[in-house]
Amino acid sequence: MTLTHLSILNYKNIAQADLDFSPGINCFLGSNGEGKTNVLDSIYFLSFTKSATNTVDSMNIRHGEEMLMLKGEYDLNGVPETVSCGMKLHQKKQFRRGDKIYKRMSDHIGLLPLILVSPNDQELILGGSEERRRFLDSVISQYAPPYLSLLQRYNKALQQRNALLKQEGDPQLDLLEVYEEIMGDTGEEIYTERRKFIEEFIPVFQSYYERISSSKESIGISYTSHCERGRLVDVIRRDRNKDLAVGYSLHGIHKDDIIMSLNGYPLKKEGSQGQTKSYLISLKLAQFSFLKETGSHTKPLLLLDDIFDKLDSERVGNIVELVSEEDFGQIFITDTNRENLDRILASSKGSYKIFAVKRGVITS
Hints:
Blueprint: E1 2-11, E2 14-20, E3 25-29, H1 36-48, E4 67-76, E5 79-88, E6 94-97, E7 100-101, E8 114-117, H2 123-126, H3 129-143, H4 145-166, H5 173-213, E9 219-224, H6 232-238, H7 240-246, E10 257-262, E11 265-266, H8 267-270, H9 273-293, E12 301-305, H10 313-323, E13 331-335, H11 338-347, E14 352-358, E15 361-363
């Protein structure tokens, strides 16, 4: 899959841009705060119907403007595809595939697979378990469409159960049991998908880390869940009295987590900045490989946002060698350092384009 053309109107600090891309490597060069990341985020928006950084859609509209528009023209395994989004202040966004408006945003997820590697990924390690579950869910939902529906059903039942738990007085027992049954059934299906993914993901992830680090360290990743304690509905009901006391659900797949380790110790405590960055990049490249072989069976777009900071020259060289291989398709990369981009372009055998970004204005 390739993104051949991108039109941007009033997205963050970009007033207007019409960009034609290389099917190979596309580089965005400029100082910090000029808008490089915003270009990548607009591409991300067209794949996931939301920004990677702003949870409130209206925050993506350029200051002083009333609306934004994004339009991407794609080559999807030889088939032309157009996806666009329009949004006005205080109104819901509209997504279109061609001329057809999506009724549900979830129907779009997976059509345009994409992997973003950015400085914000450090929250996967430093943040709470919610960040790591989001990582799991973002991968699986791109190749297994029913998974997103399962998540939505589980989360709705969880919210309804929590609302009952917070009520004064005795809750309606029959309603509690209904919500617990839904959480148990959908939760076990979600657990099965997550566990299967992690088992298949680990060897791919480890092989990438070995290449980036020149096999200097050993890394690990494991998955923990309340589903390991027995039938999930029984686990949930076992501590219902505790849940009533605190006013929310203490058990379920909304508490699942990924344990990340370096040389047998917690990565969060033991990893240097370079080791942590190497771990995160390996996670995302493994995610790329996994999606390439599943789902739409196409090479996802690979977005690399300022990935070389905190890395020594050896690891930078290993990453340059990796992303220059034919395993990867179309790449979008940002950097403030022209030397890093020149190293990638020198190693690449395919086509490329370089864009300069200054104060939201993009030139090639």
